[in-house]
Input
Amino acid sequence: MKKRVIRSAIPVYLCALTWILFGMLLPMYKLSSILLAAGASVAVWLIAGRFFPGRVVEEEEKPDSGDEEVNRQILEGRANLKTLKDSAAAIKDEGVTAPLSRMIEAGDRIFKALEKNPRDSQQIRKFMNYYLPTSVKLLEHYRTLSAAGAGVNVQKSMDSIKSSLTMISEAFEKQLDRLYADDQLDINAEISALESMMAADGLTEDLVMKRVAAGK
Output
């Protein structure tokens, strides 16, 4: 997320009003009147800017994976996560919002990982096409049911959705962990290669001796 300030138009309107008022009260064909109006309008703009600073909005940064199709998937996924965030903000039940927060965090990290490694797009296809949108639908059903009022069937349906959220959040986290499985293999391979090179150069024996001496 990046933040952008949308400035208020009120200071501009007040500056324009200042010119109009001075035009009604002073002979604006004189340089002194023009300078006086200009100075007053600047003062009005500065003061109004403090009282009406505008508002800060958050904008999604466009993904830059280098693959347009993957960028489209990330944007679509973020839109679904946005819907989950809206649900989390609207629902007051901790039993729902806690697993929802885990799902949202895992989803954010999944899309960040995908942006860095677009080749993993096939690995999360089912997550994108089924798990995430189905989760969104379940939360929409929950909000609809919660607004429907009391009732045995309504409560049973809400409880069913609520009980499934922990399982879904764990599935999201496992999906995230799988994206780093290849990284773990690469790290292990690099460590093994490093240890082999150090052993070939006779360096590891010295390290072992130092560790033994330090242990004593």
User: Anything to note?
Assistant: The mean pLDDT is 84. The longest strand covers residues 2-6.
